[in-house]
Fold this protein.
Amino acid sequence: MKMLQPAGWPRPKGYSNGVSASGRMIFVAGQIGWDETESFPAKDFAGQFGQALKNIVAVLAEDGAGPEHIVRLTWFVTDKQAYLKDARRVGEIYREILGRNWPAMSVVEVSALMEDEALVEIEATAVVP
């Protein structure tokens, strides 16, 4: 995997501008903050974010992949301010679960998600060499 950083651009914090990779691709559907019983252990943004990441890691493990193979994440959040308020904790949780892997990322605020209790949904793309 190669991080793409155009000359003269400022280094992004917590993500990459682009990633180049070749290998077997894994596409993970949007994961929300519920557990394997479809209940939400956390009601707050940071807690649901962490559970969504754990769900992504579990799906990747089904095909022998891990967080280090993630090349793209797309986040859908229902409350931008809740995300910003918890940004420090979100960063800590991210590093605890995904390590220091910085894929290409987008974060989009949406008016709602399909599950009423969900505060965040995250899609992932991984490439296993």
